[in-house]
Amino acid sequence: MSGEKVNVVWLGSPTFPNAAHEALQDAQLRRNLKHATTTIRDKRLRAVAELDDWETLRLAGSQIKDRVMRHLDEYLLRLEASVTAAGGVVHWAEDAAAATRIVADLVRAQGTDEVVKVKSMATQEIGLNEALAADGITATETDLAELIVQLDDDRPSHILVPAIHRNRTEIRDIFRREMGKNGVPAPDGLTDEPRVLAEAARRHLREKFLRAKVAVSGANFACADTGTVGVVESEGNGRMCVTLPETLITVMGIEKVLPSFTDLEVFLQLLPRSSTAERMNPYTSLWTGVTPGDGPQEFHLILLDNGRSATLADREGRSALHCIRCSACLNVCPVYERTGGRSYGSVYPGPIGAVLTPQLVGVGSSEHADSLPFASTLCGACFDACPVRIDIPEMLVHLRAKVVDAHRQDRLPKPEALAMKGARVVFGSPRRLALAEKLGALGGRVAGIRGGRWLPGPARKWTAARDVPVPARESFRAWWRKAGRP
Amino acid sequence: MRVALFIACYNDALFPDTGKAVTTVLERLGHTVEFPMAQTCCGQMHYNTGYRREAESLVGAFNDAFRGYDAIVTPSGSCGGHVRHHHGTETAPNVHEFSEFLVDVLGVTDVGAYYPHRVTYHPTCHSLRMLRVGDKPLQLLRAVEGIDLVELPEAESCCGFGGTFAMKNSETSIAMLQDKMANVGKTEADTLCASDNSCLMHIGGGFGRIKSGVRTLHLAEILAATR
Fold this sequence. Notes:
CATH superfamily of the largest domain in chain A: NagB/RpiA/CoA transferase-like
Number of strands of chain B: 8
Mean pLDDT of chain A: 93
Low-confidence stretches of chain B: none
Largest sheet of chain A: 6 strands, parallel
Distance between the termini of chain A: 67 Å
Structural class of chain A: alpha/beta
Structural class of chain B: alpha/beta
Strand order of the largest sheet of chain B: 2-1-3-4
Low-confidence stretches of chain A: none
Number of domains of chain A: 2
Largest sheet of chain B: 4 strands, parallel
Strand content of chain B: 5-15%
Order of helices and strands of chain B: EHHEHHEHEHEHHEHHEHEH
Number of helices of chain A: 23
CATH class of the largest domain in chain A: Alpha Beta
Number of helices of chain B: 12
Strand content of chain A: 5-15%
Shape of chain A: globular
CATH architecture of the largest domain in chain B: 3-Layer(aba) Sandwich
Radius of gyration of chain B: 17 Å
Mean pLDDT of chain B: 97
Oligomer: heterodimer
Distance between the termini of chain B: 29 Å
């Protein structure tokens, strides 16, 4: 699968319902997802319940992000000044092509053709690995789950746990088959015990860490006042990447900037509890420019736009940029639990992906992107779980309206649009509604005679597994009127 | 107190018994219920499907129909939630979902009902997370004489209805429905109760298809039942 064109979405992805059709056939996938999401869901609830000021923290997180978005230009310039003063170099990238070009040039300038990577959503979004490969540069993912996905030439399906769709037996098979082709092979007699699998990954990665001259990372936060950039992770691979190589290149979405170092107080509490359900993540690496004789001696920070400015311009949609990539919304989403992340056809799956993806690539840019805001029942579990209170259900509805409005002038309106307009006419007057109810009752009785179980046309989608309710012989309003009630 | 019933269009056409049950319960408690004939639809389906323009054009008529009432009671959590959150009119704050009205406004949990069956309750998403009705429906059910109320496993997971989602993403909707039905099955309840007939239409449709014998019933209809 690698080598395919990626810019936020995998180009040519099917619409959500079509992709979900495939995923729903896979019983193993459904079992893996159910197990993984319910486990993390319960753990998160326990971790969050430990803090009696959780709701206040959520509010603080939301307000800080609000402020960042209102003054993004100002904070970014401040960040650039701080990073430069600390000995780093700041680059501005308008889109994926610009960002990958900058990275490739920087890597080549170091006279090497390989890099190690810390797991990063921004580099996945811009298809960095694929772009570097096209330039003859090998990028190795060092996060365990990301390595599994990369070795298998697969696509990630979760923001935090990219291989959530794989169980450990599948992982053992991937390691046995692929590790040898890419470096240190899996040891003989590899079992599917988690400890044994982790040890195999460690050995495989260790020689790459020690050899690499350049590392590429993302950033969870960057503080405008100090120029400090931070990555939080669980495995220590990130710490290796940001300390061992001579050169560190960080690709960061422009929305990740925070006004001040002290704002970390809020986010370092919100993020780990929401993502891994831990009080504190095992590794928090913070660096400020370069320090002579300690760690990388060259630091490049690439500030990536890639659709973010356009998202910022939409007042109702911009809070999608508040996301801190914790993935709590994925874990609580009943749709994600059934379809998995790959059905979303984007590096950003789940509820946050359904609102972020169409905005980054543009509503109306493809049938695939336009199908994403509809991939939700609006059950609201995502809003309750979101550590920065992004009102995802409200934003989904906002984006649905944008999709509908983009098609209002279509020469051939969809049956749905005609039905909605028709319903609007019926609801426009109580008299028309009463008449429609009478006709419906009549039609219902005809259908009722035939069982009311199978309907033709688009209604087939309902009757595939559900009986149709037969309209009552007498509507409530007709009954009320007949009874002479007030 | 002038009380109006906002029935919600799909209850009007498909589930009139629920409206009758709401009326029965409120009258039993000594209130007079009025049904403003001018009401049609709150626009929720349009709004949630992206047809905002059409939805907004129904707001004024709703407000006109219900102006002057002290309380507007509805047996639909999702339509009640939509009006309260999105209408922004003078009548919107007076809309109460049925269980909220009984518990919060009237301060009643025992409405004198009798329903000798094994019942499990599904908290519908919009009543739970939009209106935050909490355990009010359960408080009402617990007070029903003869009831054997059993907890539904994974109760707070969505049943998969989601309005037009049930058609646009029917396969995912059905996958969610199957899990909900399996959880109801585990309770061995003969009745599945909820505060919204839209979700019950979806779950009941699924049960009907497999001829399970589980009955789906709106909360109001259980509360209306007597010896």
